[in-house]
Amino acid sequence: MDSEARRRALAERLSAANGPLSAASLARELSVSRQIIVGDVALLRAGGLDITATPRGYLLPRLPSGITCTFACRHRADQMEEELNAMVDQGCTVLDVIVEHPIYGQLTGPLDLSSRYDITEFIRKVEENAARPLSLLTDGIHLHTLRCPDEGAFERAAAALEEAGFLAK
């Protein structure tokens, strides 16, 4: 398969996927190295395809259903898992984390976390890489964009964050 055909196959695979696809799994499927996939993704992006990289892999944006909202939160780094679980336990997907940096402006990290399993894997990767949360740049203050299936899930998420003391005042 030539590079053009491989990039078409990659775009088709991402389009048909129900969730993120890792570069490693795409590389195995297309019989190339992970680095080739990373390069192909960069070329597809340059060509206008809106590919998002999440901690669990690449995905194409879907038309949102339900309610999209943003919560301003504040907590210590060791409370990150508890905070994320408070949101997904209400049926919501944590789309991203956003901080306002004094030099670089808005910094956004895509997350796409929908379950405790997703969060466990995310936390494992954070620990495995000795990564620090973006919120450490802003004394724990950050935003999360959530997609909630309905108004009830939104209200439950807000109540869970408030009860845990994570909503920024």
Structural key phrases:
alpha+beta, 6 strands, 169 residues, four-stranded antiparallel β-sheet, two-stranded antiparallel ribbon
Provide the helix percentage. 40-55%
Number of DSSP-assigned strands: 6
Query: H/E order of the elements?
Result: HHHEEEHEEHEH
Number of helices: 6
Oligomer class: single chain
Q: Which parts are unreliable, with pLDDT below 50 for 5 consecutive residues or more?
A: none
Strand order of the largest sheet: 3-6-4-5
Work out the strand percent.
Answer: 15-25%
Shape: globular
Distance between the termini: 55 Å
Which class best fits the helix and strand makeup?
alpha+beta
Profile the largest sheet.
4 strands, antiparallel
Average predicted confidence as pLDDT = 91
Calculate Rg over CA atoms: 17 Å
Secondary-structure blueprint of this entry?
Blueprint: H1 3-16, H2 23-30, H3 34-46, E1 52-54, E2 57-59, E3 67-74, H4 80-88, E4 93-101, E5 105-113, H5 116-128, E6 141-148, H6 151-164
Antiparallel strand pairs: 1-2, 3-6, 4-5, 4-6
Helix pairs in contact: 1-3, 2-3, 4-5, 4-6
Task: Describe the overall structure.
- This protein is an alpha+beta fold.
- Helix content is 42%, strand content 24%.
- It contains 6 helices and 6 strands.
- The protein has helices at residues 3-16, 23-30, 34-46, 80-88, 116-128, 151-164; strands at residues 52-54, 57-59, 67-74, 93-101, 105-113, 141-148.
- It has a 4-stranded antiparallel β-sheet. A two-stranded antiparallel ribbon has the order 1-2.
- Strand 4 and strand 5 (105-113) form a beta hairpin.
- Helix 1 (3-16) packs across helix 3, helix 4 (80-88) packs antiparallel against helix 5 and helix 4 runs antiparallel to helix 6 (151-164).
- The longest helix is centred in the N-terminal third of the chain and has 14 residues, at 3-16.
- The N and C termini lie far apart (55 Å).
